[in-house]
Amino acid sequence: MSLLVVGSVAIDNIETPQARRDNLLGGSATHFAYAASFFTSVQLVSVVGGDWPAEHTELLRQRGIDVSGIQVIPDGKSFRWTGRYERNMNDRETLDIELDVFGRFEPSISDSFRRAKYVFLGNAAPVTQLRALEQVAGSRLAVADTMELWIQTTHDDLLELFKRIDGLVLNDSEAKMLADTDNLVLAGHRIRSMGPKFVVIKKGEHGAMFFGEHETYVLPAFPTERVVDPTGAGDSFAGGLMGYLAEQDNFDPETLKSAMAYGILVASFNVEGFGLERMCEITRDDITERLDAYRKMLSF
Amino acid sequence: MSLLVVGSVAIDNIETPQARRDNLLGGSATHFAYAASFFTSVQLVSVVGGDWPAEHTELLRQRGIDVSGIQVIPDGKSFRWTGRYERNMNDRETLDIELDVFGRFEPSISDSFRRAKYVFLGNAAPVTQLRALEQVAGSRLAVADTMELWIQTTHDDLLELFKRIDGLVLNDSEAKMLADTDNLVLAGHRIRSMGPKFVVIKKGEHGAMFFGEHETYVLPAFPTERVVDPTGAGDSFAGGLMGYLAEQDNFDPETLKSAMAYGILVASFNVEGFGLERMCEITRDDITERLDAYRKMLSF
Fold this sequence. Notes:
Chain A is an alpha/beta fold. In chain A, 38% of the residues lie in helices and 24% in strands. In chain A, the strands form 2 sheets. Chain A has a 9-stranded mixed β-sheet, sandwiched between helices.
């Protein structure tokens, strides 16, 4: 089954305690789409400016991602993000952010893309996500991401979105803020009661938690000492998760749990290089191999 | 196989955002011993003052713990700790600490206790731990805990200790400090290279990591929304782990992994009540039931 993602593609400048890289292909929809492409065909809806490097689009196209939904605004500028990671490689500071064309993003989804059965709404203003969602009314599974900014500034829109989506993916600090508790288990239950049928809380180096109708569980991250650049880890997690669900064309509890595991493993590769570097090196076989090791790690 | 623990028993006053309790039976060896007693017979070596409430010793004795190694110094005062937890129930502030008799603790291990094959050296000055270790030279498995204070103030003694123990259990912030890195995977490997045959890093609500000769893995905590009092969680984790190893009289890699799981589950009960309250309510069957749920949670 094909999978539609609506969200940002961007140009990232990233500084870590070890190195700095400029003009990387970034953006949440980019990391999502690349991760999902290990499992299924992906359709990407986004917007860029006239300054967008053609090779970035080409890299995604060669990966088999349908990039026809990337709108180009010739007299606009692409979304650019510059960030610096702390020594712990977890906390980061945004040094510069230029939303430009993405700040005015009005997703317009083509007729063929509107038939997508699996839809992921990358981080954007809830009204933008709702506008995209209306265009894919026939989807089988719609999952959204969000972030602190929208929790703080557009709370009502977010609650409206929650009533219409099947799943919500967000990170631990966002979940705590949204649910007004520091207990993540409680937070997950509270957020699920706001509307989404399931909630996934991403915990970075500590893995991810799942809250569904019948079950709550946590899966740890795959331990890697090679943490080069965490940018996009959460997006590649969501891409692995949704990509697997779309491939299986199923989202029963067992499939969802396997999808959580795939998401975790794809993310563990994502952090092993700057931007998409490491992802471009691996194959589905590498993921399967790591899955075997992960399963073994969790068996006793 | 019987298990010997050398460490603190204390009187705790604990304040959480929800409640406050005074004069609780606490101390690292207490939480360790109680947790281990679900699995094996436990011998406890510690020291208290003349003010020590007889009912605290009685609770441990009725649990089958051999308390003959608790030395009473009639004109001394028992170790008292008063602490307050933050809203996140993870960070805590020590409001008052009176080491008293425990500050002058010179463990003297009786002949019968010296035959213990499984030994746990609870948090104390490394020289105190070394002195205890010398008295149980014939043990089969010796594991120690430590804390930031000793990493900062008695680093050389700690390195001496590391050469003589089989396993080290410490928490994440201690591991980062000791290994001078924020990457816990790297930290575990580095600390293992300092001497211990295996290293366990406790991550609180995020579970625990294991670093052995042939394998590195992480197991998540059991998700509970009922976090009443985290005091002693790490000690009960170690107690569950060591108790299971002593019961099995084995510490091959598979047994160690099951022991890690038991430690995690016993700790998940420990935090569900103040002090030992919740632990006093449960049976081995409750632990087994949670183990089944935990195994199911980690299967996909």
